[in-house]
Amino acid sequence: MKIDENYPIFASFVKNELDTLEYIKTRALLTKYENLSSSLDLAFYDLKQRLKSSNSPDFIFHCDFNMKVEKHNHRIIIGANVVYDYAMCSYFLAVVGKGDDEGKLIRKFHFDFALPTIATRQRVPVFHLQYGGELSPKVEESGLSGERLDSWLSVPRLNYTPINLALLLDILFCEFKTQETYDMIQGDLWRAMIFNNEKFLTVNYFKNIYEHIGSTRYKKENLLRDLCYGDLSG
Predict the structure, then answer these.
(1) Could you tell me which of 103, 127, 106, 105 has the C-alpha nearest to residue 115?
(2) Distance set, CA 140 to CA 26, 104, 105, 136 (Å)
(3) Dihedral of CA 113/118/124/126: which sign?
(4) How far is CA 83 from CA 14, 32, 123, in A?
(5) Angstrom distance (rounded) from CA 185 to CA 204
(6) Which among 75, 91, 69, 76 is positioned nearest to 175, based on CA atoms?
(7) Could you tell me which residues are beta bridge partners of residue 63?
(8) Residue 192, helix vs strand vs coil
(9) In the chain, what are the domain boundaries?
(10) Measured between alpha carbons, how far is 83 from 106 in angstroms, rounded to an integer?
(11) Which helix (H) or strand (E) holds 81?
(12) How far apart are CA 150 and CA 226, in angstroms?
């Protein structure tokens, strides 16, 4: 048993991201966020074109836009860096400060799928959340500072569920809640998109946990923590 047992193959994962982009575009779900909507539209056409020559292209996405966070306007940055065959699979969400901090990131979270076969300085949970971390090239190019984050610190990496574009957007709009975002995330179209992505990406994750803790292999030598780190013995 592995925590990433039956995880979607890379080609299916990328095709699902295309389907999400198309779903958002054709149903005009994010037209109230013009910059985000336009960036997602461009990402759809780009990925659709590249899928004509390869069934497993990388999925790279970056967008910044404005929205209210706790009653104040903030610049929000989201991105994806998904490289062939999961050599890298990382999504991020960042918040830029206001007032004197308009040039600084005040929050940044990475959601990663780290294949156990890819070496790291120390073992990390296969699916994890990281606060801070290194700035992406696009963020660095924008001139934003990560000094509020101490970006040099790469730990801790906290166990978290698998993430893709739809689930990242759902976190964003659930947490930075306004009446506008609440109406959207409670709508049937949005809930259908999230339901389909939960079935696609996270159902097997929880099934693997359930099957591990219900098996005879679950003991002090094979903790749930060991499963999540990809460290099961025997």
Answers:
(1) 127
(2) 32, 11, 11, 6
(3) positive
(4) 10, 30, 21
(5) 24
(6) 69
(7) 78
(8) helix
(9) 10-201
(10) 27
(11) strand 72-83
(12) 29
CA separation, residue 151 to residues 35, 78, 104, 138, 144 (Å): 27, 17, 12, 15, 12
pLDDT in tens, the chain (234 residues): 899 999 999 999 999 999 999 999 999 999 999 999 999 999 999 999 999 999 899 999 999 999 999 888 999 999 999 999 999 999 999 999 888 777 888 889 999 999 877 777 778 999 999 987 666 666 655 555 455 556 655 668 899 999 999 999 999 999 999 999 999 999 999 999 999 999 999 999 999 999 999 999 999 999 999 999 998 876
- CA 138 – CA 97 distance, rounded (Å): 18
Half-sphere exposure of 194 (CA within 13 A, CB side): 17
Query: Are 11 and 55 spatial neighbours (Cβ–Cβ below 8 Å)?
Result: yes
